[in-house]
């Protein structure tokens, strides 16, 4: 005799509600020990391996590689023999947040995530959706909530799978209007496919970035101001400090980070966030500096915590460490969250200026363009100088233009005269 336990996709925190299956680490029939990783998933924050708390035999797996499952979904079921239950209490131990069900489950058919819910009051069904029972090779059927035979015929004549239609009628019943909308959407997809091209699912990190940027645009009334600045002396100061140093050279980004942090301390209005529910502006005492880092998996924004306590050299080391971790995919969740202001060095892509979207829920982002040689009036004479365009995108709810202009002027002064900073 054995009992079957469910291991659920756990709530990993940070507001994450779903995860994509990247790789299965076990097969059905494999023996697993307690706390052995069984699946690798990618969330909006990181890629992690999930350990199962049960010792036994893998009875079933739910989901294929590439599937996106909501938190609380069953990942695997494990058959635990009675002798194993008697020998070790740990094999059935339930921990808070561990993603396991607290009681053994009976073998039963499973319905894939996204299936149309079936109301108890509906007795007429159409196009049953097959799912495999975990205890045998037989197939069991799940009814689709459709009342009208005309609706079923309309779907059948147009080759529409009712299992993919979300009903808007009472108790989730699929109506004629639901089917017509689905047919129209399918025809638009077919038309787009005939034009050629590739469809790329928005998942994982890309989905998280898209959601965050969309939310920022919806909620934050942002404004951008900018100015051209002479960065000749800043480059010279960097060269002097790095002269003769073979290792631990201070990066230009570290200088810019130090300047941004100094400005955030001088103008705390921009080192803040808006608490919409309580209608309050929260000004932070610490400066946790986020910076944009491009990787093969997309754009990450690692966070240098307590950047206001660091020297320029300290910032250079920490930025290099976090950038390497981002590219290797080993950043911890804590290293991707908690930012209070962001530095975006888009000049690395060869562009002069940009109007970036604020990294919600922060209130400001300092942008830095490429540094190029330009004619410039220096000490009353025309000269060729190294010029950079700086931009500040800010949440107009936290301050007016005077404060934002002061912040940007503070940054510009220290770029032009770095000795003020040092």
Description:
With 422 residues, the chain is α+β, with helices and mostly antiparallel strands. The chain has 3 domains: 2-92, RNA polymerase II/Efflux pump adaptor protein, barrel-sandwich hybrid domain (OB fold (Dihydrolipoamide Acetyltransferase, E2P), Beta Barrel); 125-194, E3-binding domain (Dihydrolipoamide Transferase), CATH 4.10.320.10; 205-420, Chloramphenicol acetyltransferase-like domain (Chloramphenicol Acetyltransferase, 2-Layer Sandwich), CATH 3.30.559.10. The protein has helices spanning 82-87, 149-157, 176-194, 204-219, 232-242, 252-266, 312-328, 401-416, and strands at 2-8, 18-24, 31-32, 36-42, 47-52, 56-61, 68-70, 74-81, 125-132, 139-145, 222-230, 272-275, 280-283, 289-291, 293-295, 298-300, 303-304, 341-344, 364-378, 381-395. The strands form 6 sheets. The chain has a 6-stranded mixed beta sheet, covered by helices on one side. A 4-stranded antiparallel beta sheet has the order 1-8-6-3. Strand 9 and strand 10 form a beta hairpin. The chain is globular, with a radius of gyration of 28 Å. The N and C termini lie far apart (73 Å). Belongs to the 2-oxoacid dehydrogenase family. Residues 4-79 form the Lipoyl-binding domain.
The largest sheet, given as strand count, sense and whether it forms a barrel, is: 6 strands, mixed
As a whole number of angstroms, the C-alpha radius of gyration is: 28 Å
- Would you identify the CATH architecture of the largest domain? 2-Layer Sandwich
Which regions have little confidence, pLDDT < 50, spanning 5+ residues?
A: 89-98, 102-141
| Contiguous helical run count | 8
Derived structural class: alpha+beta
Mean pLDDT: 83
Shape: globular
Tally of structural domains: 3
CATH topology of the largest domain: Chloramphenicol Acetyltransferase
For the largest sheet, list the strands in their spatial order. Answer: 11-20-19-18-14-17
Family: Belongs to the 2-oxoacid dehydrogenase family.
Cofactor: (R)-lipoate
GO molecular function: acetyltransferase activity; lipoic acid binding
Domain Peripheral subunit-binding (PSBD): 146-183
